[in-house]
Each structure stands twice: as C-alpha cells, then as structure tokens.
Amino acid sequence: MLKKLFKKKENKIKQVILSAPVKGKFLPLEEVPDPVFSEKMMGDGVAIDPEEGKIVAPADGEVVQIFPTKHAVALKIANGAEILIHIGLETVNLKGEGFTAHVKEGQKVKMGELLVTFDIDQVKEKAKSMITPMIVTNGEDMQSVERLVKEKETQVLAGMTDVLEVYGK
C-alpha cells in the first residue's frame, strides 16, 4: 500500500518539436532522389538541401550513434523518438573524407548544439547529392510524425526553424 503512495510518477514527454539540423532549403521527403528515403523505408521525416556544412542537434537528446564515416548521426530524444540525420546521399562512399564529428556516442546534447561539420564543396563534388534527410526511424513507436514546413524550397535555419512535430505514445 505504501509503495503506491510513494511511487515515483513517470513524467514522460509526449510532444517534441524538431528544428532543422542544417541551414538550407526544405524538401518533402518524397522528393529525395533515393528510394530508401523517398519511399520512407527507414521512416518519415523531412529533407534539406544544405547551404553550409554544419549539422546541429534538432532537439535535446542523446547521441546514440556516430557512423564511422561521420556522414550520419543518430539521436534519441526525450519522448523516445530515434532520429537519423543523413548528410547527403551515398556519402558513405567518401569514407569520412571531409567530415568532422564534434560529439561522441552516449553524449547528451542540447538543441542547436554542433554535431558534425563537413566541407560542403568537397562533399558536393564527390557525393551523389547534398540533400540531407532527417528521419524518425522508430515512427511505429510514435503516435504521430507531422511535418511543420509545407512549402518546398522554404528557407530553414539550423536549430531555429521548426520542421517536425513528433508525438510519443
């Protein structure tokens, strides 16, 4: 009986707003020239055609994975959503060339904190595309993933423009 009285309440955050992870032009995920992203095989999200080589945390969370090639970073945010930021398309083939990670796995990050920098000219020259998808990879565990930016080519600012709203269950 006393256990119920003093039981700690779980105060889980349900709604999280994700900001743009990079400055650039917004694109609907369906227009990404790669079926893995455009057909939402990995999950729902948004894409941005970057104008600078700085990727920031779209929300407070924890770095779950930095890929060895530093072309992608995975975060877990407060409501349990798992977010993948994939810098460019087919950039894994660059084997880390032009990318610098500024965080490590297990590190807690705040929205707007620098995660990865990349040489935009070098990557643009060698990658299939610079388009950078941000995906909620465990959408089936979420109540909803809603796109906040509706118009293609809308200018978004890293860490400032809200692009996705994710509701946990």
UniProtKB/TrEMBL annotation:
For this record, the Gene Ontology CC terms, alphabetical, are: cytoplasm
Which InterPro entries has this protein been placed in?
Dup_hybrid_motif, PTS_EIIA_1_perm, PTS_EIIA_component
The record's principal subcellular location, in a coarse class, is cytoplasm
Q: Where is the PTS EIIA type-1 domain?
A: 34-138
An annotated Gene Ontology molecular function: kinase activity
Cell compartments where the protein resides: Cytoplasm
Matches recorded under Pfam families = PTS_EIIA_1
| Superkingdom of the organism of origin | Bacteria
> What are its GO biological-process terms?
phosphoenolpyruvate-dependent sugar phosphotransferase system
Keywords for this protein: Kinase, Phosphotransferase system, Sugar transport, Transferase, Transport
Family annotation (NCBIfam families): PTBA (TIGR00830)
Name it.
PTS glucose transporter subunit IIA
- Gene source species: Fervidibacillus albus
- Source organism lineage? Bacteria, Bacillati, Bacillota, Bacilli, Bacillales
